[in-house]
Amino acid sequence: MRVCLVLGSTRSSGPPRPAPLGARVGAFMERAVARRGCEIDVVDPVVEALPLLEKPHFAYGRAPAALDALAARLAAADAYVMVTPEYNHAPGPALLNLVDHFGSSIFSFKSSLIVSYSAGQWGGTRAAHALRPILSELGCLPVSAMVHVPRAQEQFDADGRPASEGWDAYADRGVSQLLWWAAAAKNHRGPEDPFESSPAFRAAPSQRNAPS
Ligand SMILES: Cc1cc2nc3c(=O)[nH]c(=O)nc-3n(C[C@H](O)[C@H](O)[C@H](O)COP(=O)(O)O)c2cc1C
């Protein structure tokens, strides 16, 4: 099973300190997925350094090589762990910008796990809930369990090691749901290609309109 873990922050410093927190939460979740024997690919918006969306991947005739390479990495995944900070009660713009660069067919008929964090007490729950309909729109089933990390600066050290017990079991519940759906979707893709009965939109979004 291949899991792609997408980080959602491009911040390089605080306040609040220590920052950025995303790397800690990402490292923690990376271990939670690796424990299950999955192959894991971490996509970091800092490394990808995509511009604010000018042209999505699918809108190019011949896309830039770096965008093609990222599309291939995302497409190769069976499931996604989306790690988002909470900025003004919303998901991190770096995560949304990255996702918006690609057509939904890259993500669709797969599963996703939402992981949110914040420096404050709510653990990014508002961002997590705002991310749910976005992943649903991509056809990338967000599983019911979510992982929320309040005061991430206190919960995990710089390597993503938890400071207290219980975090591994908490993450495992979400990862279990993610992998269950991912396996179900993967196994069914062979017998029935989902794009045959529900093809990707090629021409215009109006292809999904109700009849007039
Ligand atoms: C622009 C901005 C908006 C923020 N909004 C929220 C918020 O709505 N809720 C919250 O709990 N924390 C908020 N924070 C604090 C973040 O939880 C904290 O800065 C965290 O470290 C962000 O993750 P990062 O370091 O990986 O970027 C905000 C931080 C920034 C920079």
Automatic annotation (TrEMBL):
InterPro entries the record matches: Flavoprotein-like_sf, FMN_Rdtase-like_dom, NAD(P)H-dep_reductase
Sequence ranges assigned to domain NADPH-dependent FMN reductase-like in this UniProt record: 1-152
Domain of life: Eukaryota
Listed GO CC annotations: cytosol
Region (Disordered): 188-212
GO molecular function: FMN binding; oxidoreductase activity
Matching Gene3D superfamilies: 3.40.50.360
Protein name as it appears in the record: NADPH-dependent FMN reductase-like domain-containing protein
Source organism: Chrysophaeum taylorii
